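User: I'll paste a sequence; please echo it back and then give the predicted structure.

Assistant: Echoing your sequence first, then the prediction.
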Amino acid sequence: MMERRLYRSQQDKRLFGICGGISRFLGIDSTLVRVGVVILTVCTGVPILIYLLLAMIMPKEPSWSYAVDGFDAYERPYPSRERMNDLDAEIDRLEKRALVQEVQRLRAELGKYKNI
Protein backbone atom coordinates (compact mmCIF):
# COMPACT_ATOMS: atom_id res chain seq x y z
CA MET A 1 0.00 0.00 0.00
CA MET A 2 1.27 3.43 -0.92
CA GLU A 3 1.58 6.12 1.72
CA ARG A 4 -0.56 9.20 1.12
CA ARG A 5 1.25 12.45 1.76
CA LEU A 6 0.14 16.06 1.51
CA TYR A 7 2.23 17.98 -1.02
CA ARG A 8 1.90 21.23 -2.95
CA SER A 9 0.91 20.14 -6.43
CA GLN A 10 3.36 20.71 -9.27
CA GLN A 11 0.82 20.14 -12.06
CA ASP A 12 -2.51 21.38 -10.69
CA LYS A 13 -1.67 24.84 -9.42
CA ARG A 14 -2.76 28.41 -9.90
CA LEU A 15 -0.54 30.18 -7.35
CA PHE A 16 1.35 27.87 -5.00
CA GLY A 17 -0.34 24.49 -5.63
CA ILE A 18 -1.98 24.29 -2.20
CA CYS A 19 -5.55 23.65 -3.41
CA GLY A 20 -4.32 21.16 -6.01
CA GLY A 21 -2.36 19.28 -3.36
CA ILE A 22 -5.28 19.23 -0.94
CA SER A 23 -7.66 18.02 -3.66
CA ARG A 24 -5.27 15.25 -4.63
CA PHE A 25 -4.85 14.22 -0.99
CA LEU A 26 -8.61 14.13 -0.44
CA GLY A 27 -9.35 12.61 -3.84
CA ILE A 28 -11.77 15.32 -4.96
CA ASP A 29 -11.83 17.82 -7.81
CA SER A 30 -9.51 20.79 -7.28
CA THR A 31 -12.22 23.18 -8.49
CA LEU A 32 -14.34 22.26 -5.46
CA VAL A 33 -11.45 23.01 -3.12
CA ARG A 34 -10.78 26.36 -4.82
CA VAL A 35 -14.46 27.37 -4.71
CA GLY A 36 -14.57 26.42 -1.02
CA VAL A 37 -11.50 28.50 -0.26
CA VAL A 38 -12.89 31.51 -2.13
CA ILE A 39 -16.27 31.28 -0.37
CA LEU A 40 -14.66 30.95 3.07
CA THR A 41 -12.26 33.80 2.31
CA VAL A 42 -15.08 36.12 1.25
CA CYS A 43 -17.12 35.20 4.34
CA THR A 44 -14.37 35.11 6.97
CA GLY A 45 -11.04 36.16 5.49
CA VAL A 46 -9.23 33.48 7.48
CA PRO A 47 -8.35 30.98 4.69
CA ILE A 48 -5.99 33.45 3.02
CA LEU A 49 -3.77 33.42 6.12
CA ILE A 50 -3.94 29.63 6.32
CA TYR A 51 -3.14 29.44 2.60
CA LEU A 52 -0.04 31.60 3.05
CA LEU A 53 1.10 29.52 6.02
CA LEU A 54 0.63 26.32 4.04
CA ALA A 55 2.58 27.82 1.14
CA MET A 56 5.54 28.19 3.51
CA ILE A 57 5.11 24.87 5.33
CA MET A 58 3.88 22.30 2.79
CA PRO A 59 6.63 20.55 0.81
CA LYS A 60 6.51 20.54 -2.97
CA GLU A 61 5.42 17.41 -4.73
CA PRO A 62 8.54 15.40 -5.60
CA SER A 63 9.35 14.85 -9.25
CA TRP A 64 9.18 11.06 -8.88
CA SER A 65 5.43 11.32 -8.44
CA TYR A 66 5.08 11.42 -12.25
CA ALA A 67 5.60 7.65 -12.31
CA VAL A 68 2.56 7.28 -10.07
CA ASP A 69 0.50 9.39 -12.47
CA GLY A 70 1.15 6.99 -15.34
CA PHE A 71 3.99 8.93 -16.97
CA ASP A 72 6.88 6.77 -18.02
CA ALA A 73 10.24 7.94 -16.70
CA TYR A 74 11.16 9.02 -20.23
CA GLU A 75 7.82 10.64 -21.07
CA ARG A 76 7.66 13.45 -18.56
CA PRO A 77 5.55 16.43 -19.58
CA TYR A 78 8.71 18.58 -19.58
CA PRO A 79 11.31 18.60 -22.34
CA SER A 80 14.35 17.77 -20.19
CA ARG A 81 15.48 17.33 -16.61
CA GLU A 82 17.69 20.44 -16.80
CA ARG A 83 14.86 22.57 -18.13
CA MET A 84 12.55 21.26 -15.42
CA ASN A 85 15.12 22.15 -12.73
CA ASP A 86 15.51 25.65 -14.22
CA LEU A 87 11.73 26.09 -14.24
CA ASP A 88 11.45 24.83 -10.65
CA ALA A 89 14.15 27.26 -9.51
CA GLU A 90 12.44 30.17 -11.28
CA ILE A 91 9.05 29.22 -9.84
CA ASP A 92 10.55 28.97 -6.35
CA ARG A 93 12.07 32.43 -6.76
CA LEU A 94 8.76 33.90 -7.97
CA GLU A 95 6.78 32.19 -5.20
CA LYS A 96 9.11 33.58 -2.54
CA ARG A 97 8.89 37.04 -4.09
CA ALA A 98 5.07 36.88 -4.20
CA LEU A 99 4.96 35.67 -0.61
CA VAL A 100 7.22 38.50 0.58
CA GLN A 101 5.06 41.04 -1.25
CA GLU A 102 1.89 39.58 0.28
CA VAL A 103 3.38 39.67 3.78
CA GLN A 104 4.43 43.29 3.26
CA ARG A 105 0.91 44.14 2.06
CA LEU A 106 -0.64 42.42 5.08
CA ARG A 107 1.74 44.27 7.43
CA ALA A 108 0.74 47.58 5.85
CA GLU A 109 -2.96 46.70 6.26
CA LEU A 110 -2.38 45.72 9.87
CA GLY A 111 -0.49 48.97 10.44
CA LYS A 112 -3.50 50.94 9.17
CA TYR A 113 -5.76 49.23 11.70
CA LYS A 114 -3.34 49.70 14.59
CA ASN A 115 -3.05 53.44 13.91
CA ILE A 116 -6.83 53.98 13.92
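The helical segments are 18-26, 30-43, 46-57, 65-68, 81-114. The chain has a mean pLDDT of 78.
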